[in-house]
Design goal:
By secondary structure, this protein is of the alpha/beta class. It folds into 2 domains: about 10-30 and about 280-355 and about 400-439, Alpha-Beta Complex (Aspartate Aminotransferase, domain 1); about 35-275, Type I PLP-dependent aspartate aminotransferase-like (Major domain) (Aspartate Aminotransferase, domain 2, 3-Layer(aba) Sandwich). It has helices spanning about 35-45, 50-65, 75-85, 110, 155-165, 215-225, 250, 265-295, 335-345, 395-400, 415-430, 430-439, and strands at about 70-75, 95-100, 115-120, 140-145, 170-175, 180, 185, 195, 210-215, 305, 325, 405. Strand 6 and strand 7 (about 185) form a beta hairpin. Helix 3 packs across helix 6 (about 215-225) and helix 9 (about 335-345) crosses helix 11. The longest helix is centred in the middle third of the chain and has 31 residues, at about 265-295.
């Protein structure tokens, strides 16, 4: 694109950089007559609580990932809870989880009587720092929860090496990274079990739903036994090898969910999921094209750089859920990130702060007595106190000052994207004018 001479900043009374009608460039999910008809079929049959559609969706979702089994849940949080229990997380145990993530990556552990040992993140990927894991592993550590944050795959090779060394399970929270690749492998298939949220705002959206995938039959069976009472034992839904519990210790309790949960996916969601799955690879590729175009056009702009995988690495950002950028205040004379964001928004562009704040400093993980133990729940059954306060995870704690959200384009339309590029460029190149106000 051709860069015009920068005009006065909109925040100071100048014209906005973004004036074009965005149309449907931000609209998501893409819902067509095909989706509506699939959902209406379920509604008209009164099959919302059935399993026929969900079983087919599980089969196709698993096939898409090249794994043996999938299990549809009512939401991604339930999938993570089921995965933790299936991996043996229980009373007195610990999980390791990055502090910058959505709360569902960590909080379900407390409902299982376990506690959370938060780890720091890598400053570039924003995912769990592989070098900050091993020293946190103790006698009661059962699982490492890795989060492919904002679409960026974790560095899985060293994480798996550490996990195998200590015989610890790896749970992949891939809720931000549907279809993303790590060195050519789909995220969610690399650890012991992968979990995905499929709620309406996600890159792969089917409504309020979630799904678990794994090649480990024992994990799958335990997840079924924990929250799917109608799918245990010789029930009317048991259809051969893929739908029946075989572990004698689990079969004994068939007919009741061992966790007291009903994790069944509503079939309006699995029906929409079947349709979305047909089109998602193409739509995902369009998102990747649009987001890479946006960042390529911003190359060389001071103070901001993309949060994305390296070209030629064999890794991808999937549907690029909640795209963010990395901010360098020093390169802009010390301009605070909040003022930068404010100025970009004034230009008519989409921009915001860090989507997920660090969890390790939240009072819930220090003080909350959730279940009436008479002490903080994180300590109720813990063999040691793994709570971390301010100053313990420096990269996580610095993230709000160096991470900002950017527009999530669903279509590659340069005439619209170029104006957003111009807004970011305009503010960065005139940071000095904003600094005069700060002085």
């Amino acid at each position: 694109m051709t860069h015009a001479t920068a005009s006065e900043l909109a925040i100071r009374g100048g014209p906005k950089a973004v004036t074009a009608d965005p149309g449907d460039i931000f609209a998501w999910p893409i819902v067509t007559d095909e989706d509506e008809q699939a959902v209406l079929d379920v509604l008209r049959r009164g099959a919302m609580s059935g399993l026929d559609v969900t079983l087919e969706f599980e089969k196709r979702y698993a096939a898409w990932h090249g794994v043996r089994r999938a299990l549809g849940f009512c939401n991604g949080t339930a999938a993570l809870l089921g995965a933790m229990w299936a991996c043996g997380v229980g009373v007195g145990d610990e999980i390791i989880c990055p502090s910058v993530t959505y709360w569902a990556s960590a909080l379900p552990a407390l409902s299982l009587g376990a506690t959370v040992n938060f780890a720091d993140i890598d400053p570039d990927t924003l995912c769990i720092d592989p070098a900050d894991i091993e020293h946190r592993i103790g006698e009661r550590t059962k699982a490492i929860v890795v989060v492919h944050l904002y679409g960026h795959p974790c560095d899985m090779d060293p994480i798996l090496e550490t996990a195998r060394k200590h015989k610890v399970k790896v749970i992949e929270d891939a809720s931000h990274a549907h279809g993303a690749l790590y060195k050519g492998r789909m995220v969610g298939t690399i650890g012991d079990v992968g979990c995905f949220s499929l709620m309406a705002g996600k890159a792969f959206a089917t409504g309020e739903a979630g799904i678990l995938i794994t090649n480990d039959r024992a994990i799958w069976e335990r997840a079924v036994a924990f929250g799917f009472y109608e799918r245990t034992g010789a029930s009317r839904y048991a259809k051969g090898d893929e739908a029946a519990i075989t572990d004698p210790q689990l079969v004994r309790f068939a007919g009741l969910p061992m966790g007291g949960f009903k994790h069944r996916m509503n079939q309006t969601c699995s029906a929409m999921g079947l349709v979305q799955l047909k089109h998602y690879p193409r739509r995902m590729a369009e998102i990747q094209k649009a987001m890479n175009y946006f960042w390529d056009e911003l190359a060389g702009v001071p103070g901001i750089r993309p949060h994305r995988v390296a070209a030629g690495s064999g890794s991808t950002m999937g549907g690029w859920y909640v795209p963010v950028g990395l901010y360098d205040a020093a390169a802009l004379g010390g301009l605070p990130i909040g003022r930068f964001v404010e100025a970009v928004v004034a230009e008519g562009a989409r921009c915001g702060g860090l989507p997920n704040k660090p969890l390790h400093v939240h009072p819930l993980f220090h003080e909350a007595d959730i279940y009436g133990h008479g002490k903080p729940t994180v300590l109720a059954h813990a063999a040691r106190d793994v709570r971390q306060g301010p100053g313990t995870l420096p990269v996580c704690e610095a993230a709000p000052e160096r991470v900002f959200s950017v527009p999530w384009f669903k279509h590659c339309r340069p005439e619209v994207i170029d104006q957003h590029v111009a807004a970011y460029r305009k503010v960065a190149e005139q940071a000095g004018e904003l600094l005069k106000e700060e002085a």
